[in-house]
Each structure stands twice: as structure tokens, then as C-alpha cells.
Amino acid sequence: MTQDPPIGGIIPLDGAAPELAYPGLSPQLLARVKQLWSAAGIEFDSHWRLGLRSLPGFRALPRIDRATSSTDVDLVFLFDQCVIWVRALQAAADLGRQQQIDGLTGAQWHGLAALSARLTEQLAALRLLALTDLPMPAMQIARAVSEDVDMTLVLLIRRKLADRFAECRSVEEASAFWRRHIAGGRAFRSISEKLYTVGIDHSADTDYAKWRKSVLTTLGAAVHSNALSSGPAKRGEGNVLLNGDSLHFATFRMHELCAFAQLVAPDLTGALKTAAKGRPSASPLAALAAPMNAILVNQIPSLSAPASGADQAARRH
Q1: Which of 97, 228, 232, 276 could bridge 287 with an S-S bond, Cβ 3.0-4.6 Å?
Q2: Is the pTM of this model over 0.85?
Q3: Cβ atoms < 10 Å from Cβ of 22
Q4: CA dist., res. 220 & res. 12, Å (int)
Q5: Measured on CA atoms in the order 125, 181, 252, 208, is the torsion positive or negative?
Q6: Could you tell me the superkingdom of the organism this chain comes from (predicted)?
Q7: Residue 84 has pLDDT above 80, yes or no
Q8: pLDDT (tens digit, 9 = 90+) per residue, 142-156?
Q9: Is the dihedral of CA 204, 144, 45, 30 positive or negative?
Q10: Tell me: the pLDDT tens digits for 279-293?
């Protein structure tokens, strides 16, 4: 997203309404999201402050005077909903691990807590990079987000693999685990096979799989920036993605994680609810994990595709 000044606007006071952090936000989207929260029986404003306002490096969006639509602001608002959910997921998963709640094995709770904690850090960094207009490192983090989403889903699907992940005790063991079970599309294949059993076809020859591969190829090229340009990335040229593309893809993948996790692990929502109830005072965020599953899934139709370099790259492949 292009903005002036690039670093972000004034941070609203702690007690300010959340919408003040999103100047230009669609009133319809705001009303829709608040309605979803209300229907789930949870109050939006206070939990937004708890889950998002307290995020390390939090910045409000600047007002974009030249904006012709609310699309950029709406995207950040939806992205921020994912941040709140994954922070709640991490808190609930940690409680589930400590209490050994039924529904997931100890190793699966361990993996879910570890990966959701890592996703929280990645999303916080991606948000900050997008608001400071640094698309290249944002691309790298968006790819890492996607890989961790796949890894989380695989650990929910394959309990023995979760056991092996939990047994990793060194960087070398973790790297070997990654190369053997996750890298090179191995995780995606396992997820596709499991989703096929519940009626979702994500096999390699589908449009979805081809689109996903093209986006990940472009994101992966950011690791070697000279593959895209000989100097600093110029926004919108060639295959260089914009900040909005990285935010959009990360939001899309978090929506998938939320929806697919409930399909491949039907007991997950109930287990998260039980974990939060077991120690209600341990983490106020943990109680959000279960009800926010439905909230996030219902936000999926609100995520419109950005008209930018990612679409052009996908069409070329």
C-alpha cells in the first residue's frame, strides 16, 4: 500500500474506538465484522485492544487522501482479525498442552502452540513491513506464513508426524524434519489428500493449486532479490509483488488454516473451548480461540482479490 507518511499514522489512545486506527475503512465491513462478534457473544472493541492494540510494533494506518476506494484499508482490517485469532489460538493451545486436553495429542498441542506463536511473530512483522512500504522482506515473510500454515495442518492430520516434530531438540533435527516432511510441497500433498476425503479437491492440476504455485514461486524469488531486479524493488514492475499482495496472501492462508483445521480436526473447536475454560484466568485471549473460528470463516467472502502485480503474475503462468 502506498501512503504518506510511509511509517504510519498517529497511534490512537488505548481507549479509542478501533475504527480510528483504520481511516477510510468501509462502514459496511466494520458493521459486518462487529455483527459477527456480537452474534458469537463476544465484545469487539475491548478484545481488539487486547489482541491487536498490544501487538509489538502496532501502528495505526495513515489516512490515504488519494485513495479511490477502501480496499487497502479493508485488507489490513481483515488481516488484523487473523492476528487476533492466531494470538488467541496460541494462548488456548498452550493451555491445552499444559492440561493435556482431549481432542488432540500432547504432541499436537505442542505443535499447535509452537507454530501459532511463530505465526504471531511473522504476522506482526509482516504488518509492520507493509505499513513501512517494504515489499521485498514482506514477501519473504508471507512465504514463511504459508509454509507454517501447511505445517500446522499436517500436524493436525498426522499424529505420528506431530510426535516426530515434538521430539526435535536441536536446530539440526528441526531442519532435517522440515526437509523430510514439509519442504518441496510434501505438506501440501498430505493436506490435499485429506481434504479430498471431505469433498475438497486441491490436487496439483486444479486452478487453485496452479495459482498457489505461481504465487509461492514469486514470493520465493524474494529470497534472491536479484532474480527480480538488479536494484531496489520498484513497486508494480515485473513479478515484484506489492505490500497488498503479501498481506492478501497471508490473510487468505490464515483463513484457510482456520477453515481447514476444523475440517481435518473436527474436535479442535471443542478442545480449544475446553482448554480455555480449564484456566480462565491464565490468558484472557484463550477464550477467543473457539468462537473466533466461526467469525474468521464468515469473513472469507469479504476478502476481495487485490488488483495488482500478483494477479498479473498468476495470469502469465
Answers
A1: 276
A2: no
A3: 21
A4: 35
A5: positive
A6: Bacteria
A7: yes
A8: 989 998 999 999 999
A9: negative
A10: 877 788 999 999 999
